[in-house]
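Entry 0007
Protein: MBL fold metallo-hydrolase
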Amino acid sequence: MNDKIVIGKTGKQLLKQMDTTEVPKDGVAIWQLGQESLVVKKQGKLIYFDPYLSASPSRSFEPPIKPEEIYNADYVVITHHHSDHLDPFTLKDLSIHSPQALFVCPAPHVQLMLDAGIGEERIIAAKAGVSCELTQGISFTPVACKHEKYITDADGNHFFLGYVFNLDGLIFYHAGDALADQELEDALKPHHIELACMPINGHDWRRLRKQIYGNMTFREAADMAAEIGAEMVIPMHYDMFKGNTENPAYFVDYLGRYYPSMKFKVLVPGERFLYLTEREQ
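Output (structure tokens):
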């Protein structure tokens, strides 16, 4: 593994930075942990998205933090059941060391969370289109997405979700794993998303026959961000596994050619990014 890829903070220093970072009322702080693992801070609350922090020889770099080091999670948001998003080993240790944390997951995956050792009273079952307030000023609306195809359980609940968060007026979108299509665009547009985090690793038949399910290409991610009116876009899901990566420079080049006014940020694992809104609150 190449731990030189991680050039941001790691371990206790990274966690201390999360604790001590002061976020202005008109902003949000974001830390990238690799793949689609992000930490978002708002109103003093830390929200972990898809924390995949298990040690594995298939990783391209060491996790910036270890699951057993995480004591500061207030909320943990899971987009779907694949192991690089719903990682039972990470979730088990994180739940023990962050006993205050609540866990959001798609309704069909509640049993997987229980199997990972999460108490039922700590789990929020997310359903597409059904909004939920976590605390005053922080709420979310799940959005169904297609990870090769839309999948629902017997009750019609979607397996794959993205999440639109209202962070005290700042609208933040974590796409999870998703392909671009008209249904997704139509679901996202009414939310007036300002900051969008999108997968860019793409999809093709070679990976699909190995059961590696696809995502937006870098072109599709940029096009979708533009279509939904996002002010800024952050690419995700391009850095973790050999054979399922993408060069984010292609994404940046495409934005420069076709959407030169679109703001973007490419983050490295362990890096902090402070975003300040330019919209009137």
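Curator remark: The chain has a mean pLDDT of 95. Residues 219 and 254 are 7 Å apart (CA to CA).
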